[in-house]
Amino acid sequence: MLQPERVSDPEPVEQLKACEADVFIVAAYGQILRQRVLDIPKRGILNVHASLLPRWRGASPVAAAILAGDEVTGVSLMEMVRALDAGPVVSRVEEPISPHDTTGTLEPRLA
Length: 111
What we know:
Helix content: 25-40%
Order of helices and strands: HEHEHEEH
Distance between the termini: 17 Å
CATH topology: Rossmann fold
CATH architecture: 3-Layer(aba) Sandwich
Number of domains: 1
Number of strands: 4
CATH class: Alpha Beta
CATH superfamily: Formyl transferase, N-terminal domain
Number of helices: 4
Low-confidence stretches: none
Mean pLDDT: 95
Structural class: alpha+beta
Shape: elongated
Strand order of the largest sheet: 1-2-3-4
């Protein structure tokens, strides 16, 4: 597991290259990956996102779903591309939102 403060710095880029991985998995990481990082793994990077993409791209998707009154949300696994949360969705799992849910009760069910 690698979680550098700035993933585009030379040292983390070299660490990622040294992995010689076919695929990287990104989850709960608050940085936008530059193309030079996206190009490192042979088969790409998959991102775990706490919404049913394309709804609620970007930050705070769980809070956004609750505030909008959505009855269902979920988790999407998508291929990472240069644009934020815009890659093809590989898989999705739905989770109902109860009227009493908060981010504190819903986020653990999506983890």
